[in-house]
Amino acid sequence: MEKWAEIRRRVLTGELSRRQACREYKLHWETIRKVLAHVEPPGYRRATSRSRPKMERFLPLIAEILVSDAKAPKKQRHTAQRIFDRLVAEHAFDGCYSSVKEAVRQWRQGSQEVFLPLSHPPGEAQVDFGFADVDLAGERTKVALFVMTLPYSDAVFVQAFPRECTEAFQEGHRRAFEFFGVVPTRISYDNSRVAIAKITGSRSRQLTSEFLRLQSHYLFQAHFCLVRRANEKGKVEGLVGFTRRNFLVPVPRVESLEALNAELFQRCDRDLDRTLRGKAGSKRELLAADRQAMLDLPRQSFDARRVTQASANSLSLVKFDTNRYSVPVKHAHRPITIVATVDEVRLIDGDRLVARHRRSWKREQDLFDPVHYLALLEKKPGGFDHAKPLEEWDLPECFATLRRLLETEPGGLGTREFIRVLRLLEGCSLEQLQDAVEYALDIGVHDADAIRVMVEHRREAPVALFSLDGRPHLRLVDVGQTDVSAYQALLTEGAS
Asked: With bands split at pLDDT 50, 70 and 90, how would you rate the model's confidence at 116?
């Protein structure tokens, strides 16, 4: 273009003649004429499409291959080279690769979808899950990102969970609604199994009972995108990537998901102060209009949990989500109701809560509460030192001292009596029992019954002293000192 402009300037201003320009720039006379006739070089354009007679009967095959690719994984779809190789090997194609490449290009160009710009009124939301890596307690871990965005204000809320599941889905909604302070009137989703039990039509869905419970509590309307039409909730699709790039780069190093989510909460709040190009105000200002169109939060908090059933086996373990959680041995072989949240697993026999554990998101783990097995060990004290549920039980030093005394002193009561002491944990905290054991050691009392009395005594509320505050008339009452010897007459009369 630079030389083109130079030639035009020099010839048209009279600095050079056309003949001199041909000699100096070593160009043909016709080329110089075209330069002078056009301000810029004209682009190459073929007047008519090149005829490709050999390709005509192969075009339907190429189209068939490309249509079938839509159902294949993205990384396993046909390239133009692979289509050319198949045509040669399977259909005796004797044309050139460039013809196949051009046919593929034209087909793809003609099949590209065109999208309609959408408007988003206040009060609506979109929800999606994404994934990101974090360094969690020194270990690289993939977490699921729950993302809710309000398209009108572009406000976004994100939280990290160990996995995309019912409990995380529900808990994400609960936290998002509390963050925004309101409930959207309409929320758009993809076709996640967490929410949809069965697709019954293009827009018809059979919803899961847990999703219906969530919807019934918060009263929002649900909209589900058409299958493979994620553009219907394109806002949240884009913001999943935004939060990953801006909130989680570099890879966060945290000790717990609680710490990560606290940081994500703060980042979402700071993000509300951004003003996007083309918007009339900051996200926080637009959020005020969004809130006006939304529903109030219910007064009652939502219990984000999943409920299922299982039976405790002969080891007093209940299997849930590949892991096994203990219950007291008397509940072995009984049906158990499992109530699982993001943080804990509650185990219920009938209508009674019999155990609760911190939830493990690892796989094939045994989660023991040592107290659950003490009743069995009291009957089988010989297994105390080899019991797997007690392997990692780190008791305060005073308990080891108590056991040595019980087992070595003359007339000692042995391991069974020590287990009886530990069984007091079925009705009190470790701190309460530790306090009682330390006191018992100080006064030289070692048996379980005495320690139980000490625990119960320390749990009793202290007797409050009678106060004369607010009773001024009682200050004038003269109460004489009681003569204890007067009660002796009662004993004398009783003897006679």
From this structure: very low
Q: What is the mean pLDDT of residues 427-454?
A: 92
Domain 124-292 has CATH 3.30.420.10: yes
Six token digits for residue 465: 């002293």
Indicate the burial class of 487 (C-beta count within 10 angstroms; 0-12, 13-18, 19 or more).
Answer: exposed
- One-letter amino acid identity for 362? K
CA 463/CA 330 separation, integer angstroms: 37
**Choice among 119-123, 132-136, 151-155 with the minimum mean pLDDT:** 119-123
Distance of CA 259 to the CA centre of its chain: 13
Instruction: Calculate the CA 455 to chain-centre distance.
Output: 42
- 361, 340, 364, 158: which is closest to 264 by C-alpha? 158
Using DSSP, state whether 486 is helix, strand or coil. Answer: helix
The closest of 179, 174, 185 to 210, measured between CA atoms, is: 174
Backbone angles phi, psi at 332, to 5 degrees: -65, 145
| Residues 287, 280: Cα–Cα separation, whole Å | 12
Strands 186-189 and 124-136: parallel
Compute how many other C-beta atoms are within 10 angstroms of the C-beta atom of residue 336: 21
What is the rounded distance in angstroms from the CA atom of residue 195 to the CA atom of residue 174? 15
Q: What are 297-353's pLDDT values in tens digits?
A: 999 999 999 999 999 999 999 999 999 999 999 999 999 999 999 999 999 999 999
Show me where the domains of the chain are located.
2-37, 53-111, 124-292, 306-367, 377-496
